[in-house]
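Supplementary Data S3. Sequence and structure tokens for construct A.
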Amino acid sequence: MTIQRRRPFGQNYAFVVVAVVFLALLASAGMRATPGVLMLPLGRAFGWSRGDISSAAAVGILLYGLMGPFAAALMQRFGIRRVLISALAVMTLAAASSAWMTRPWHLLLTWGVLSGVGSGCVAVVLGATVVGRWFSTHRGLMMGLLTASTATGTLIFLPALAAIAQYAGWRPVVLTIAAVCAALVPLVLWLLPERPSDIGLTRYGAVADEAAEVGAGSGNLLALTLGALHRASKRGVFWLLFATFFVCGFTTNGLIGTHFIAMCGDHGIPEVRAAGVLAMMGVFDLFGTTASGWLTDRFDPRKLLFVYYGLRGLSLIYLPYSDFSLYSLSLFGVFYGLDWIATVPPTLRLTTDAFGDRDAPIVFGWVVAGHQIGAAAAAFMAGVLRVQMGSYLTPFVIAGAAGVVAAFLALRIQRRDQRDQDAPMLPAGESA
């Protein structure tokens, strides 16, 4: 391949790529967190019920997850940079056009459909694809760092957006998100090469006899995406990964991310203060998820998942019985923040172990789809139960019990033999 343009920093340019992708994932996290900030202001402005707003948020979360495997296939087929720029443009359109919404279906279209499709291409699968393409070593650590961008997005956006919503209304909130997404487009164009070989480099940490990078995918996009699903679905390890990550989404951005501010409002806690607790979770998750990546490079990821899910489930059962004082919320925020998405690096490691470097990004996309189906289910369920029962007690206990179940399911995940980790997963009837 012809070298297009050499960049500074030599092999360390891989870290520049990580920084650019980190910022894109940060903006996507801010977009996904925005419906939680808008829930109370939109209710006051239009009289929309929490069920209406939760439904739109659930659609956005669902599409965010379902886009994952297709986004991975699109990146293989058309390139990371093209897909990322297109996704940022869709996110900008979704946020900016919502400033003129007046009906619930406008909310569904902008913050449900468009934001879900756009942000679904700027998600965990993007991080997995970039790490696999640019790094040969330290993959767990880099994936932990990129996954932590969700926490950093929460840290940066939620308190600021909640303050804007409280003092200026909801329209400046959506326009702020639109401006951030639009500003990233030229940065991606300038700093993100398609692959290391385009600038005369190899993957960071690659040894001399290491296999070449996996080339761009070819063939029909649906066949590429659904074919990987068909092959993976025949193996029990896929369904265990899917089920545990379903619970991950159910217990994080579906429940806490969408309903935590509203739940605190039920106990007389202002939006900005509640958003501050979420921001604190973001601070600690930045450390927790990065540390989880480091631990994944060194310990059995199944045992890590057992600890993460088990403690998460118990903390969710505790929260509705707490007194919602500053002390108890801070304690919950620190603990839950460390655990928020620490599950991603070990889940990606197990997926790569089971399905190989070639198919792992698309298969992981389907596993992430399970995460977002769980998140959408929790966002919708908690909103409906809150309306029917007048409190969030039942959905939090249900989510906590699911976390405990997922902890034991994680121990049943079988790892592929080490000598087969880099072999591609082939369709039935083919041989290597």
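Construct B, processed identically:
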Amino acid sequence: MTTSAPDAGRLLPAGLLERFRARAAGYDAANTFFTEDFADLQEAGYLRILAERRPGDAGGMAGAAAAQRRLAAAAPATALGINMHLVWTAVAGLLADRGDASLESVLDEAGRGEVFAFGVSEPGNDAVLFDSLTRVDRLPDGAYSFTGTKVFTSLSPVWTRLGIFGKLEGHDGDAILHAFVPRGTPGVEIVEDWNPLGMRATQSHTTRLSGVRVPADAVFRRVPVGPNADLLVFGIFAAFETFIAAVYLGIADRALDLSAQALTRRRSMVADRPLADDPVLRNTLAAAAMARTAAEAQLRGVVQDLDARVDAGPAWFSRLVTLKTHAVEAAVAATRTALHVGGGSGFSASSEAVRLHRDALAGQFHPSTEESARATVATALLGPPSG
């Protein structure tokens, strides 16, 4: 997989990417949604890519990851926002490819233009998918009521279908219920509070659920609280970590390009030579590029195995958290290098290198965090802690 994969080039021609790159600084400075980018991507059919080329034999995961990496090199926040829609369509496709058609409606609706978003992250919930602070109550007519707070709800200005989950307590054990709610559902409130350091254009506002009524037939999954082997959990984890990695590798790609351009352009007055000839700076650039290459190889292996339906069992989770962690590390290293070699003018708040570095720093907050990732890998090797 490369950033110039045929599908990526067809969906995202160079001229379109340059328009995205030209707009990115303005969205960031104004802390506004990528409205024009979104319209262009919709018109190009970009949000339908996994409905039209599904995960599996068609190579949907590889194609979408390559496209997201290419998009992120031009406009990281645009790519990260679009990620959330693509994750849901990837989950639907991964499940269908493994014999579970429970989310076929997601692919159908995405093909008709619906926009999906994640209402999953909750303040204070480090169990992520395995527990929820959102309360679910059963209503007399058999429907359910969801009450809770969701954070990092990317695509807040434009989503039309929000995936939510919450905990239903019961005598036969607590359960996590997953459902989609349409935009405009009573009790769904978008709190416009997004003002972060980086990835500003995603407009990932807080979403409050206050007694949101969900019909029984809109609940598409019920799983037990706690770690479990449900295919939905695997699908969400696999799609999310893979596309997050693709976005941050796109940031690394662009940062390395900027670094090479700066070293070629700048000269040392003392040594009377281009900085591209400085052995220390060459070494610095090479180290960042090697980290990018290693994460790139991991991404290639993961998407190929997901499309090939490789059954790695629990080992999948170690692979996925390692991929995400290394991709974010590669992005941070590459953007730090771009700042280092770019000279004092590159420290301007309006410089692309500074913006890319701020965007790269956001990667540490996406699940799994570095600490959580290492705990996952350690458990795979040693088993759970005895205490």
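Residues 231-382 form a domain with the Butyryl-CoA Dehydrogenase, subunit A; domain 3 fold (CATH 1.20.140.10). The mean pLDDT is 94.
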